[in-house]
Amino acid sequence: MKFNKTLSTVLILALILLLLFLFLFRNYQMVQSGDVLIPRAWENHILLEGGDYLRHYFYTLTGLYKELPWAVRISYIIIQLSCVAMLLLIYTLLWDVHKRRQDACVYHALKEKYYPRFREVAQAEEVLPENRLLEMMGMDKDTHFSYRENMALIDILLEFHVEVELSPSAITNMQSVMHLMGLVRFMEDRMVKGREKEIENVIEAIRILHIELPDSFVTGLVNHRDVRLRKAARLYYIISNMEDPFLYFEDNRQKVSFVPWDMLETHQIFSVCHSMQKQLPSFIPVMDRLDGHEIKEFFIKETAYWGNSRDMEHLLHFLQHPELSVRKAAIESVATRRMEEAESTLKEMYYMQTEELKREILHTLYVVAPRSSDEFFAQAYRDTSSMLTKRVALRCLLKSGDGGVTLFHALKEKAGPAELILFQHVEDRLIDREASAGISVVN
Questions:
Q1: Which regions of the chain are under pLDDT 70?
Q2: Which of 194, 212, 264, 393 has an alpha carbon 20 to 30 Å from 95's alpha carbon atom?
């Protein structure tokens, strides 16, 4: 584990200040109590040798304000300790500012030097040999980076992967570059010797940078006591392991929280697996075992992205789920996959739903089966008392085809003054938007 230089420097400074404080008050101190001046007889003609110095400082410190009342003595002690603490705090803040400035200077220098070269390597259309990569990066085999430079290079590479879309050959070349720069060896070292927070950050960086590490580095962390580190290890295990990548993913024995950030990371993991042509498991058995509605909604939506046709068939039974948010997620998933076979189910369940879900169903029908639903849109407009639902129905009706346009104008001729404005909103391209209509935007 890397020794904390800042802490060691603070401790040394504190010891120096303490010795200086004792030196200033060790002699010639006389305390005036009332009108009586009390000399310190024990400080005259004292010869100190060897360990007597420590004993001398101890007695000097304990007898410095011995003649004063307890309240005054405690006040003096509090003031002096506060001064020392303030000095230490100021020093720590200044040191932190200095360290951050140095890190920023190293980061900008390395980015200016290597970022254009990273882009040049990423633009190569074929896998490049090692000597060619060294030439393009302006390095040799003996190039070595410090701890601070390695951390800055990792940040630069993370920024590069976010800004630049890499092809499979570019990913291979970038992996070779990271090996040549010693970043893979550095991350392996931090995985073994780093603190828990540092290991967690390294695992996330490895996953984003597509670095391949032996499973032995992660296997010991998949059951770690720290929840966040265990999550990070299990997410990386999905990508790195080829035999049973979703072994821990399907383990529901440990109840852990699943926050929105975890959902984003998991979706990114599934995207990487899909690009690697790694077959994803069926999420249907997982959803049946999960207790929280939020995570169940997440996997319903993920099924729409990555599930096969058989998974989507099983997903339809969530349209009858007792929880409103779960039904809504299932309806959105049907719209995402454009499942025409769900048309009849959606129409049957429409009149048993809340106004919010009715609007979602109308939009989903517009996505999956617009031409065969024009009569349904018109009837939904007539039956609802919600002006917002009426506007969604009119929007779907107008954009459902020629038959829908005919019905739209027929309803417009019979509309009263209060409802006529809805028709005008839907026909106005500037006003009419999916968001203003109160429905989800599905591409």
A1: 1-11, 13-14, 17-53, 56-57, 60-65, 241-242, 245-257, 276, 291, 430-443
A2: 194
- Whether the CB-CB separation of 215 and 241 falls below 8 Å is answered with yes
Give per-residue pLDDT as tens, 205-216.
888 888 877 777
Task: State the DSSP string of 294-343.
Answer: HHHHHHHHHHHHH--HHHHHHHGGGGG-SSHHHHHHHHHHHHHHT-GGGH
In DSSP notation, 205-274 reads HHHHTT----THHHHTTTT-SSHHHHHHHHHHHHHH-SSSTTTTTT--SS-----HHHHHHHHHHHHHHH
CA 350/CA 136 separation, integer angstroms: 62
pLDDT for 97: 92
Q: How far apart are CA 191 and CA 200, in angstroms?
A: 9
Contacts of 291 (CB under 8 A, 6+ apart): 255
C-beta neighbour count of 367 within 10 angstroms: 19
Residue in the structure block whose two tokens are 């410190």: 61
Residue 408 φ/ψ, nearest 5 degrees: -60, -50
Number of H helices, E strands in the chain: 21, 2
DSSP 3-state assignment of 32? strand
Residue 266 has what pLDDT?
Answer: 82
How far is residue 296's CA from residue 321's CA, in Å, rounded to a whole number?
Answer: 11
Between CA 378 and CA 384, with CA 381 as vertex, the angle to 5 degrees is 145
